[in-house]
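Comment thread on ticket #2218

A.B. wrote:
> Attaching the input chain for the structure job we discussed in standup.
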Amino acid sequence: MASVKRWAIAGLLACLALALAYLPPRGATSSGRRDMFRAQSPQGTPARRRAQALAEEWRAADGALHLVSARRHLQELVRQTAPHTGSLVVASEPAGVSVGAAHVIDSAMHAAWRQLGLDETKVKVAVIVRLTGPTDARDRPLPEETHGTYLAPDSTDRTTCMAVVPVGTYWTRVISGGLRWRDGPIPFDALVQLLKAGLGPCAFYAAYGTPGKPVRQWLVARGWDLALNPDPGARERQRRSLIGMADPRYPWYWDAIYSLPAPAVACLAGRPEGCRAAVLAGASEDATIPFPDIMRIDRRWWGRTPRLVEGQRFLADVAHEVGRDRFLTFWTSPMQVDTALAAALKQPVGEWTAAWQRDFVQPIRLGPTLPVGSVAISMVLAVLAVSIVTLTASRRQVR
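C.D. wrote:
> Ran it. Output below, let me know if you need it in another format.
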């Protein structure tokens, strides 16, 4: 009877130790707070959601109308100023900004243009830098400060790409002198980086011309998410991704992982098939190119769920890696995107992307794997259990 009790106690202790070792699983439990990584807001009433949807539709229609209406005026402005300013024309809104603010905007945009290595281009770019002004309008939604709007070249104007770049309330106050920077002068380099990123798809049109039909349909289907940042900067700065700087020991790291689509998660694990699926999503769709081709892009990092970590700089990195000539061959190719991109990279798309992804995030492990510490504890417990059984059996007496 005493030996049975010892067996029962030893078994319970072993089960308790195993439970402590394996529960909860290592860092793989979501905290349930995914809204910090997705563009979600607390659910309102049906009437409020309907009003928000109508406001979003109104902003999209108003932005499209504004671009189409401004194109004729900017076409004339391009013809008048292009001989003196090259292929870039900059305008400010509202038109009545101060001379000093207009000069700062013009200088920063031209500095961004030069840093991108653009000079005389076949496709000209007309940029409207939209400052935030006071509004008393009560019969329309407030303007959206986080969405850039772009009008691609089309049959009406094949040589001009237009971009409306809102700078938001903060930069409006800084540029206009209403807010002093803590060190005194305007942080000009930061403004240049902001406007450079704001060029978005128009920078690719200026640098490489109009893409071939398969590439253009692929980008339209994806919302141009792989071509939002024309200049990712130095390679050492590329590691500054949100997930790459996170610590896997904290729950919010896994919240960020869980907020990504399945192919993006597979790519983070270094699986080429997942990387390929993440890059080529939309390539098989026969997307209709709208007319006019107006792109409205949310420029906030939290405003969209990325299909690939740091995907907004993917095509810029491809162009940097393969060189202008090979990238231009891909950009204008009539072949399918997978074939053309693999030819430019000179290796399968998934393998190149998996290596590229490791520049931002250390590969994660997927699947049921056991931590080394837990395996060690279980082995110690197994040895202990065998020792107890052996000792008990050696002292057992048969009566």
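A.B. wrote:
> Thanks. Noting for the ticket: Strands lie at 88-93, 124-131, 147-151, 160-167, 294-298.
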